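Open question from group meeting: does this chain pack into something compact, or does most of it stay loose? Before anyone orders reagents, we agreed to write out a predicted structure and look at it together. Recording both the input and the output here so the notebook holds the full record.
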Amino acid sequence: MTASLMVSGLVVRYGPVPAVDGVDFALEKGRIATIVGSNGAGKSTIMKALAGLVKPHAGRVQLFGDDVTCQEPDALVRRGLSLVPEGRRLFSTMSVGDNLQTGAYSRSDKAAIAADLERVLTHFPALRDRLKAQAGSLSGGQQQMVAVARALMSAPRLLLLDEPTNGLAPAIVDTIADIIRSIAAGG
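Structure tokens returned:
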């Protein structure tokens, strides 16, 4: 089976300081994989490099068989890659509904966007009654749900989650994990 994502020899530096040196891995469609390491080991740097937020010093990133090394984040979103960043990074003064719509910024099919909104609200029913609330007024768990739902609104073929359960209550961790498994099972 062809890998959805293949990373070869990834090197990322912040100035002269190496943050990631020689990372290699491949991910197949429908699989859940994790990057494990201590704080400062480079997990978030890898995610940022894959999403185009930092440029690799060396190495190669292939997405669905195409070389996407050093592509801009918006181009990667259009190619089907979406990142839920560490710390959620919501637009806190905007409504939950508006935050979700920003996830679909590169899409034009209004019917498909509406169907995906319904789908994410089915995954995250707690958000349905909060669509008009300011995103910054939600609990940490609800904000994480918004961040994941926003990424899903881009209709990704590959979803990257950076620290998706950091700081969440155990019940919310279980909910997020169930949703991740459900999304992966759907391909």
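Observations to bring back to the group:
Helices lie at 43-50, 73-79, 96-102, 110-123, 140-152, 170-185.
The chain has a mean pLDDT of 90.
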